[in-house]
Please model this.
Amino acid sequence: MPTAEVNALIDAPRGLAGVIVTETQLGDVRGAEGFYHYRQYSAVELAAARTFEDVWYLMFHGELPDAAQLAAFRAETAALRTLPAAVRDALPALAQAGAVSGPLAGLRTALSLLGATVGFRPLYDIDAARRRADALAACAAVPTLITALHRLGQGLQPVEPRADLGHAANYLYMLTGDESEPAQVRAIEAYLISTIDHGFNASTFTARVIASTGADLAACLVGAVGALSGPLHGGAPSRALDMLDAIGTPGRIDSWIRDRVLRGDRIMGFGHSVYRTEDPRSRMLRGIAEQFGGPLVEFAVQVEARVEELLAELKPGRELHINVELYAGVVMELCGLPREMFTPTFCAARVVGWSANILEQAQDSKIIRPAARYVGPPPPPPQPLPVVAPR
Model:
């Protein structure tokens, strides 16, 4: 191949929008259609009809489990929920250090410690079976880490996991210390399933970039958590509810939204980098919220309808529709989750999608290494190296 062709650079659009960087068997987001899927199944249909463990198994193994496989998988993952003593002992200090920034800050350090404690090795150096074992261990431990860090930050003792509870029920139990109502468990389970994976979002791509270096699984997940912690990625459900609080009453919707849009502010809960239609996750979660009913749900529905109209008027042609954030926040609020735990709860689900992507990326030995165009001040012209006379 000629040198010029090898060294040719390709300009990518800002934010890599629309750029295909690899092939995947894990799923896809079809934004123009308002549809996304895990493997060969509609993600929304899975959330409506399956358990979290069913979909976790699907993402790792490529097929839904039968009854025997599901029972074995539940037992395998439930046994991994308990933290090693060295990790458990470090959590109070991590919770205190992250008192301002929240559980995700502590989770980054805790994941590194978990990986070191249980002996995660570089993906490059281990086989597929060991990679899967490491991924299962991390995915099972993350909900325990998140809830323990939160409770310690509130001056409460962590709640030990229970192997007899399903993934979602156990998460709520570790968070609150009590068994939740079946309707709340099912609502949170549907939310968790709906957020397991969502294309090559910023955190998933971060995880895959790190995996392409051959680093260990904990390193990949720490990077992904860092990306998720950004308000433009995982931090918006609580901000969408803060918006509802700020608006306050139906009579203030127009003035509040118009003022923010004209100032150039982003309206949390609306607009998506991929969808040009209503976010299918929002449609599902709105249905779940409406089953609970109440003033918060009624107000959210009013705000949604009017904001869509105002955005169409003030930003014509932009196709700014509701995304997952508004009703995700509503559902979590209705199920008793504190707002500071909205993004960590998102993380408790997305860790499965990250891990599935890491396992897939580990099969490819090519490191992800794009280029950048330098636009700063010109450097000095290259100087020839001095000739050293032979001795």
The radius of gyration is 23 Å. The first helix runs from residue 3 to 6. DSSP finds 17 helices and three strands in the chain. Residues 1-6 have pLDDT under 50 and may be disordered.
